[in-house]
Batch of 2 targets.
Target 1
Amino acid sequence: MNSRIVHIATNTFREAVRDRVLYNLIAFALLLSGAAVLVGQISIEIEKLVVINLGLTAVSLFGIVIAIFIGIGLVSKEIEKRTLYTVLSRPVRRWEFIVGKFFGLAGTLVVNTFFMAIGVFAALLYVSHHLVKSDALILVALYFIILEFVIICSLALLFSSFSSPLLSAVFAFSLFVIGSFAEDLRGFAAMAHGFTRWVATGAAYLVPNFSALNVVSSIAHGEPVTAALILHNTLYALFYAAMALSGAVLIFEHRNLK
Amino acid sequence: MSAIEILGLEKVYKVGFWTKRPKRALSPLHLAVEEGEIFGFLGPNGAGKTTTLKLLMGLVFPSAGSARILGREWTDPEVKAQIGFLPEQPYFYDHLTAHELLNYYAQLSAVPAKERSRRVQATLQRVGLPDVQGVQLRKFSKGMLQRVGIAQAILHEPKLVFFDEPMSGLDPIGRREVRNLMEQLKQEGKTVFFSTHILSDAEALCDRVAIIHKGELRGVGAVEELTSSVQGKVEVIWQGTQIPASLKALGAECHVTGDTVRAIIDERQQDAVIDALRRERLRLVALTPLRTSLEAYFVEKLRRAETTAGSTV
Amino acid sequence: MKQRRKISIIAAACLVVSLAASALVLHQIDQLRPQATRQEVLYLNSPTVLKRLSLGYNGLLADIYWTRAVQYFGFRHHNHADSYNLLAPLLEIAAHLDPHLVVAYHFGASFLAPAPPNGAGQPAEAIRLMEYGIQNNPTEWRLYYDLGFVYYMNLKDYPKAADAFARGAKVPDAHPFLRLLAAQMAEHAGEFETARMMWRATYENNRDELIRENAVEHLRALRVDEDVTHLQQAVTRFGERTGRLPTSMGELTAAEGLPPVPADPDGHPYRMTGEGRIELRVPDDFPFATRGLPPGYTPQPKFHSNSQ
């Protein structure tokens, strides 16, 4: 059982890496980091700030786009193009397929982030010529970005398990946008009354909480991140992904593959 | 033990957006396929062949009924280790090479690691793709993809193979190769279940066939029996353009083509005709029992279904 | 089939458990970083930049900043804060993104000007915000009211207050009481009745919970101030007549013809100290009262129940 998941994950990784879309997006993100260097030179004294802000935002945004593009491709496109049939005609359980795909995609994104992060650090070295201890915070921000990816991957899989590629992409991206304002949604829910309050609160807890994972602006200013927050965010991402994946497995188990 | 026992598998789809109307893709099907035979599953497009295969593969869930494959419940995952499946118009991961793809499938089918590359290479050879190292699948032609599809179905030496339209996309040479392959599989003791709408292939290959139309089984039987000379007609060809009067008296249909005459006579008149020809000193060229072709049987079955059947649901 | 059911049950259970767990963890995270989105304002507080970044969705972003302003104030107020530095920027951003977001101006009128802990203590900012609002919504009479309100309540600048009310009274469809208020400013500015009119108007013209609660507290405090003033005047009159202090509240009320047990709006009777001072029994119930308090005592601000 486990080896099948590993094989599916590895194969997913290989297929994702060979897909040239990935390279274009990485190149773009690297380009953006370079642009950050240029922009930083225009506004003196805040070069470092701009590099970190722009660079990390680029890593995050492009990673999300990659996660959605490839994540959608995983199940939706596989069903549409029927590559799935030959896989499921083998002793592979449907849930193993979903879990394997998830790990493959998450792995792809981690590697991806690694390369993009190199770009950011390179740009940072260029503007400030040496790294200080507070720059380690960038690693925390990157770790949180990876947690964001884990959540988005699980959501992409969830939508792929029942929806067409286009709709899945739309849903996943929408949830990313809404999730970035999750804290505001909760604030709105607290101010509302009656039925609206119930609906808003429910939505506010179901929507992925990306606002807590976005520490880019604060670490750009050198503000520390508490260990408690790191732990909680990790737990949150894991539970949320587990939730989305359980949903994906549940749906996929019962789906007729026409 | 039957290789496949289909016990009343049925599939009704609910079609429509607001009001779901039932659409019957497969009426309760009862069918058995014996081990070691090549079984043809025939029918026009949209008859329910692919639905049946998908039901057996567990890709689609039945509305009713069950099946046993190689003695086990068809939903048993362990069954999958012993079967191979070639879907219609297969499509594979664009960016992998054939070797990587087959290796992946071999992993999933639990082929031991040491065996894998040897098996992959051997299978590729067997399906006629010896030299595709390093070429990504997106560069393969339709025919090559079909061969890869066949390869993945037989790679792990399954006891039972399911092919959905295995000849599609292949040129005549390719089709002959696949026919040979299927014969080989039979000789190796494997069972082959394949669906097609090309009757000549079925006629050439199959031990038994089933005909399905609009989700219903119309006929099952050995090809021999189905195409045996039910009508009892014989074709006689002789040199010359003369038609003996006695033959005309027998009421035979005679056609003159070039310098030979062709007549269709009743089986029982066979001896009388031969005598007549000898008396007239006409040279007999050929005497052949007329077999109903599978095609004729097929068309007739379908036509009968149209006239007896009322609604199509 | 059995396999499928088993997997489905496990998946469903996993779904429910992880949903609950994620909600719990999320709740914890909220405790850990209660003001985070509000802090962002420190880094990104230029309305023009935000306007461009919002890609045209100004209204939505304005609403978001408005929500943040309310949450910010409510949370800090609940936790006994003594500064609200981010309130002005948050409200200003909201107003700049959507100049017609009238409720932002109302909120600023109630909470930007008063001194901490009841407000940000920035009356000048409040005035500026009101004027900005009036500039962009010249026919919204309530904004002139808000402007006058700030001048009256926090700056005690009665002429300017009168001026604001008068401007507002000229707006078509303005509430007639604006004209009345303008007139009141001239002669009766310092009177209880005027203040009562204003707070009642604020209460009636707003739907925001915090603003209304604030108005209610002020009305209660006014009642107390008024009561204590009258009672204290009665003590003085008693003293002038009898040459001594009354021995008890009962004696005072009997002698001065007042209702027998004068009580505060909560029903607690006022007390009289040995030195003849009228005092509240529970001063902390009336955070805005200026009279009836023990000497040198400032009541603790009362914190609203439904803020985070």
Target 2
Amino acid sequence: MSQYFNPEIETASREYLSALQSARLIKMVYNCYNNVPFYKKKFDEMGLKPQDIKSIEDITKLPFTVKQDLRDNYPFGLFAVPKDKLVRVHASSGTTGKQTVVGYTKGDIEIWSEGTARAIVAAGGKKEDYIHISYGYGLFTGGLGLHYGAEKLGATAIPVSSGNTNRQIQILQDFGSDIICCTPSYAMFIGETLKEKGIDPKELPLRAGIFGAEAWSENMRKEIEKSLDIKAYDIYGLSEIAGPGVAYECSEQNGMHICEDFFYPEIIDPDTLEPLPDGTFGELVFTCIGKEALPLIRYRTRDISAISREKCACGRTLIKMQKPKGRSDDMLIIRGVNVFPSQVEHVILSLGMEPNYQIIVDRINNLDVMTVCIEMSDKMFSDSVKGIEEVERRISSSMQATLGVSAKINLVEPHSLPRSEGKAVRVIDNRKI
Amino acid sequence: MSIKQISIFVENKPGRLAEITEILAKNNIDIRALSIADTTDYGILRLIVSNPDEAVEAIKREGLAVSATEVLAIGIPDVPGGFAKAIKVLAESGISVEYAYAFITPSIGTAYVILRVEDNAKATKALEAKGIKLISQMDIFKN
């Protein structure tokens, strides 16, 4: 039994990795310059030529890419390949109703699947295993990302998708799933449901879980491991770079190995944009050196993390990243869905209401609950409860449609929301993670 | 003939009702009738007051959400079946009542019922045809 999916890469020497990264970066830079007008313009403005990039060390000469660049070039403006080379698109919700769209060639799907296959093996997965995938399938990258990894490994994917906890449990029992993949909060919820139903987790064949798409703590890990009687592993990713599987946890459970042969990581100071030394927390930046369709250069993830190049006790040499401990912007992750306060504001404005609001996030019974408090105005007010409920319903369905996640609407009195130094306090995150 | 009701949005917080009614007191506004529609998170305080326009202004100055609505007020004898008779008229005319509240004036033995209906004119016509007396803003504060 191998403990690595791809031992040549996962345990490669730094010299080998560095040479591979240099070769891939050079190829990528030409691809971007020749095929993505956005990058050609940026290079030309900076007086930078593709031939100026001679090795991976030259990466700091390259410009950064931010989420707004994807929005400005919505939907396919940053794609570097013609349509006949594309085989898939995914999308995540974005501000002002515009989604962030990402594309994949056949080769990109292979890379992404390799990442998730490595993650499954690192979590103890084998060809003989049933991989129970409870991430949502669809435009969200979670479901299909793990699905392709399971198949690439040669294991059996069970595409359960999210929701319907009773059915999830029935499949865990009847099919004998070996590894489950979902958000950590959903894993907690399944654990609690097992307890309520009086099902002993020790009687389930389930051995491990791969959990990501939202922040979770060591305490949550302990709880999940106990309530499901498994080992719980973290996985990291974002659709702009590929999806889940950009980095994954090994048996050491103390950080995630980055697939740096495809996704080259840097840590920068989010204010000065200068690179920071290993071990220092800063903003995580990725360059998609292995990808064809959407080869983003120095993409700023906004996640705050630190990296280490020390060899891991598991034998892997791939750079390890710490679990992100925050964001350098105001993005919230609600039940795995990215939500920006500006999206909430956009919904309120689009309904012709005053943008006097506050977002409160709680974790109730291990599930994220978002409440949007909106100050009542004369325009929204009615003398009948029916009238006010109609207003609430309109806001709520518009939020669901734009954000892709439900929000409880709480109408409050005018001028009752706190303002500090004239600036409104937009987000209160009560989650203790 | 309709009268003006004012409605105020009130969050469910201890002391809020006292604060709001104090605003009216400070402005020398007399409350003749009130009702509160309550939900889990908020209530709608509905009032019949001596000077609704002034009350709306005073409430607005305090930064609260307020609206004025034309409602009907009927006077019915304070005897068993009084209200049933009146409401039956509306039912027979296919007029539904969104909400209603009442108060009595013992000195003259009359109960006043405030009615919120979709179409005031239609309801007025139906009520008057059956001899049910509609009350004006002035009448309410006369007794």
